[in-house]
Amino acid sequence: MMITKKSSLLIVSALMLAFVAKANINYNGTKLSTNDKFTRTECGTAYKDVLKEVSGLACSRQTPGYLWAHGDENTGEDKKIVAIKPDGSLVMTLNISGDPGRDDWEDIATGVYNGKNYIFIGAIGDNDLAYKDSYYIYYFEEPAITSGTQTISVNYIRFGYPDNKAHNTETLMYDNIEHVFYIADKAEGAACHLYTLPFQTNYGTSTQKLTEVCALGNGNTFDLATGGDISPDGKWMAIKNKEYILLWERQGSESLT
Predict the structure, then answer these.
(1) Number of folded domains that form the chain
(2) pTM score, two decimals?
(3) How far from 135 is each of 205, 233, 256, CA to CA, in Å?
């Protein structure tokens, strides 16, 4: 299948067509016209012997020029992590240990913290709205990409939402400037909400609460967020659904929120 990850800035950047603006610019709730559509650039093919469906995709920081990807729960591959080339060919398979066993991985991100490169995996999907406060971000130091298979032990952050309700989510982003996670839920028929959680390595097993930032769309309904990313330099944040892309530009050292 084509590499069409829900939340990769590689794909988003090829479709920067909707709203190049800061968060206070009004969101146009009408559908794009045919004149607003841009041609997608296909860069490779991930064959089904690598992943049947790519659910998470992020650029490697440790080995530039390569990508990390994981599969989808629908194909039973949400816990399969692979390193691939931009053309979709398999380089390495990564197995993990030490996780709490939460399924429905939805997104992956990479970032730097205290001078170390990390991989973050969002076990944040909840189609049946059954988990409430059992959402996880797995994290581990990014290994060098070599051929073959590696097994690596992970740490995790458990979190819940400030309204103490279940949320189905597919978007996990990490800001290298403030070392904060940004999470956008996948509200259906209502505005998606953006949340934050600082990255720390000493949370332990306690459940953290996200902080709500805002509803997306400035009063217009921007629902079903399926992915997003923050650029490695922290200058840009993009969140998309099936029709639109919201894009924010950071000015200087200001907070994205």
Answers:
(1) 1
(2) 0.84
(3) 12, 27, 23
